[in-house]
Every structure is written in C-alpha cells, then in structure tokens.
Amino acid sequence: MTFADISPAVSVIALLVSLFTAWFTIFRRGTVRSTHPSFVSFSYDFSVGKEPWAKVFLRTLIFSTGKRGQVIESLFLRVREGSRTAEFSFWGYGDKDLIRGSGLFIPESGLATNHHFNPINRTPLFLFSAGTYTLELVAKLVGQSSLVSLCSVELEVKDSPFGSAISRDAAIYFNWSAEQQRYIASNETRSGQVHALSDPRTS
Predict the structure, then answer these.
(1) pLDDT (0 to 100) of residue 198
(2) Mean pLDDT by 10 residues, the chain (203 residues)
(3) Are residues 44 and 74 in the same domain?
(4) What DSSP assignment string belongs to 122-146?
(5) Same structural domain for residues 8 and 38?
(6) How confident is the prediction for the chain on average, in pLDDT?
(7) Is position 200 within any domain?
(8) pTM for this one?
(9) Number of neighbours of residue 24 by Cβ within 10 angstroms
(10) What value, to the nearest 5°, has the Cα angle with vertex 62 and ends 118 and 55?
C-alpha cells in the first residue's frame, strides 16, 4: 500500500476533525452551569416606612460549557420550605457595587461574584423560620424558551433568630465545608457599609 492509496482516507479524517473542531469552538453554544455556592445567607433588607424584605445572598461561579459563552437574561431562586414555595426574582449582583440584574454575559472561564435575591413583593413577609430549605438557582438564557436549573442546595435552620420581631442586624450564615460536604449554619450579627445603606436608622 502506497501513500497515494491512503491519502484520500487521511484527507477525509482531517476534514472530519476540522468540522468537529469548528462545531465545538464556533457553532456549539453549550449551556450554563454553576459551582456549589461557597456561602449563603438569610437576612432582611429595611427601607423607611416599608415592611422588612426577605433576602437570600449567595456566592458562586457560573460558567458556560460552550466556547462562545452565554448571556443570562434573568436569574432567580426557587425557595421551598415545607409547604411554602416562593420565587425570589428581584436579582442584583456584584462584589463591590450592587447592580440590578438585567443581563449577564457568562464566558467559558466563568464568572464568580455575589448574588442577591429578594421576592418581587415584600408582602406577605417570607419568614426564615426553623425548617429545611431547598434553594434552586434558575437561569433564563437569551434565545432559549426553557429555563435552566444551575444548582440546588439544601439548608437546615435549627434555631432561627427571626420571630415575632425581626432585627435589622440579624442574619443566618451557611458556609460550605468541603471536607464534611455540608453547610455549617450560624446565627450572626451583620455590620458594614452594605447593610448600613438599607438601614432606616442611617437614612
């Protein structure tokens, strides 16, 4: 067998490899995924003359499985506890300045940042009482009609600091333990600039 005999087969294989590479790098859009959130918190925002507003804060990396990246049109949380289900779709993000979510480009290398979620309506008040909570992070991608579930985590609140009175400084923190493969919950007192901006005592 000579080189002339095998050259057509080599050419066909090279063409197939080129077509696959073009599809994988140019045409394939892929989807989006997220890592396990390293940190989650339950708290409340306060504004003058308004009811407390439930907030879920989390930090995670969202990445695209395609070379071209994806654009997230909207991002929200499905929050479930017992018979309660709530949609936290008032979305903001950012490490320093909080930006109202209105579209976010996700590259293949991913984007790690803080995400803030509130219910669209303040009332009825969503109380973070004792119980087991399931948080599902859901994205709507540009150009796609179906929603994409990025991740789902389960959090247990044994001793809630929120009862008949809700303190503006109270929060429940959940830190992910990579060794134990679970979240470690703690009741904390918040402080700092981000909280002060929503504190009616500073308005």
Answers:
(1) 39
(2) 57 56 55 94 88 94 91 96 95 90 90 95 91 97 92 95 86 95 91 41 39
(3) yes
(4) --S-----SEEEEEEEEEEETT-SS
(5) no
(6) 84
(7) no
(8) 0.78
(9) 12
(10) 15
β pairing state of 170-177 and 147-157: unpaired
Backbone CA torsion sign across 140, 63, 155, 191:
negative
17 and 80 in a common domain: no
CA angle 83, 87, 92 (to 5 degrees): 145
**Residues 64 and 139 occupy one common structural domain:** yes
Structure tokens at 160: 């809630």
pLDDT tens for each residue of 21-61: 544 455 556 889 999 999 999 999 988 778 899 999 999 99
Angstrom distance (rounded) from CA 9 to CA 51: 72
pLDDT at res. 202 = 40
Q: How does DSSP classify residue 36?
A: P
Domain residues for the domain of 130 are: 31-189
